[in-house]
């Protein structure tokens, strides 16, 4: 069969390409030799403790803070060069602390940002609708809740139909329903081919939603890949939750005897069996051999939080 996959050069041309990016503030290495690539249409997550360097890296990637060293290109254009002006028009940015004017209404706020960006005013109403603020469009921002302000900030980032979105902690202050709606919007943007990079502290929230992510600590990228890649790199153990028909815990012990398990523990209504990833199938087969003595079997993979603490501590 003919290979219809893109040529390597085409496939590997990143929208965001960061090489050796460094930013020092006196003795503080806020960003320290970062290499990072984000592919076209990718939804990429950047996670890290407070002070890890995420916001500084974001601002460097946007050309808002000059790098002490390194090379940063967006859509092939260096962020410090004159050619970046044209690229900037394709970018939407939601800063960590979006500055809003309390005396303006939501609609006036967007009209103000639209003028700054050179985007048509006709986009403002639909942008407010997209983030669920239509009914609050004529209320002053001073009356907005934290979550409403955050949605308004997101709406301004969408003005000008950006092809690349930088979202710094976009879900701060949003309730669970608003977070879900926010990711529905991101999925729609992704379907349109928009490239996105976002930061978050809520690991459970981004674990199922980003294509790839990077863990940043002390200004450096500690690990990058899919959540599954990171689990494998970390080589954290996984565990089985085994629910038995009767309390015949000794059957589990017997069937696992001699196998490379790390722990077997009887808990309230189940038995927990811990093993390394490479032993997963042999342990599973042994447990399955118990037949109808087993009522239920569940495999628990390490969460992104487990992985994160493994890499960033
Ligand atoms: N203008 C500045 N002057 C001096 N130090 C700075 C400046 N901006 C950032 N830093 C330092 O750089 C480091 C990285 O900060 P940064 O805001 O990028 O982290 P972050 O990962 O975005 O943190 P958070 O999750 O808390 O937003 C911190 O030690 C911070 O104190």
From TrEMBL:
State the UniProt keywords alphabetically: ATP-binding, Cell membrane, Membrane, Nucleotide-binding, Transport
Pfam families listed in its UniProt record: ABC_tran
Q: Where is the ABC transporter domain?
A: 16-243
Any one Gene Ontology molecular-function term assigned to this protein's record: ATP binding
The record ties this protein, via InterPro entries, to: AAA+_ATPase (IPR003593), ABC_transporter-like_ATP-bd (IPR003439), ABC_transporter-like_CS (IPR017871), P-loop_NTPase (IPR027417)
SUPFAM superfamilies linked to this entry: P-loop containing nucleoside triphosphate hydrolases
Q: Which domain of life is it from?
A: Bacteria
Q: Which PANTHER family does the annotation name?
A: ABC TRANSPORTER RELATED, ABC TRANSPORTER, ATP-BINDING PROTEIN
Family to which the UniProt record says this protein belongs: Belongs to the ABC transporter superfamily.
UniProt name for this protein: Cu-processing system ATP-binding protein
């Amino acid at each position: 069969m003919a290979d219809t996959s893109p040529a390597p050069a085409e496939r590997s041309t990143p929208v965001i390409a960061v090489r050796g990016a460094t930013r020092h503030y006196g003795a503080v290495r806020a960003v320290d030799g970062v290499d990072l690539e984000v592919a076209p249409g990718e939804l990429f997550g950047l996670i890290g403790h407070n002070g890890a360097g995420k916001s500084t890296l974001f601002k460097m990637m946007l050309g808002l803070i000059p790098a002490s060293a390194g090379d940063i290109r967006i859509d092939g254009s260096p962020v410090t060069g004159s050619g970046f002006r044209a690229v900037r028009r394709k970018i939407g940015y939601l800063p960590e602390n979006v500055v809003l004017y309390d005396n303006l209404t939501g609609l006036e706020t967007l009209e103000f940002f639209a003028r700054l960006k050179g985007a048509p005013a006709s986009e403002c109403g639909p942008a407010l609708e997209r983030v669920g603020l239509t009914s609050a469009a004529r209320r002053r921002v001073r009356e907005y809740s934290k979550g409403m302000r955050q949605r308004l900030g997101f709406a301004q980032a969408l003005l000008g139909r950006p092809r690349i979105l930088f979202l710094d902690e976009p879900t701060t202050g949003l309730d669970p329903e608003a977070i879900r709606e926010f990711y529905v919007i991101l999925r729609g943007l992704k379907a349109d081919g928009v490239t996105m990079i976002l930061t978050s502290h809520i690991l459970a929230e981004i674990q199922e939603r980003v294509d790839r992510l990077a863990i940043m600590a002390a200004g450096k990228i500690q690990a990058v890949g899919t959540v599954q890649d990171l689990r494998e790199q970390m080589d954290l153990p996984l565990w089985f939750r085994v629910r038995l028909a009767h309390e015949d815990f000794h059957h589990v012990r017997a069937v696992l005897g001699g196998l490379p398990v790390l722990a077997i523990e009887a808990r309230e209504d189940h038995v927990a069996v811990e093993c390394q990833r490479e032993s997963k199938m042999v342990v599973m087969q042994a447990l399955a051999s118990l037949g109808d003595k087993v009522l239920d079997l569940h495999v628990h993979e390490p969460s992104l939080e487990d992985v994160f603490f493994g890499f960033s501590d």
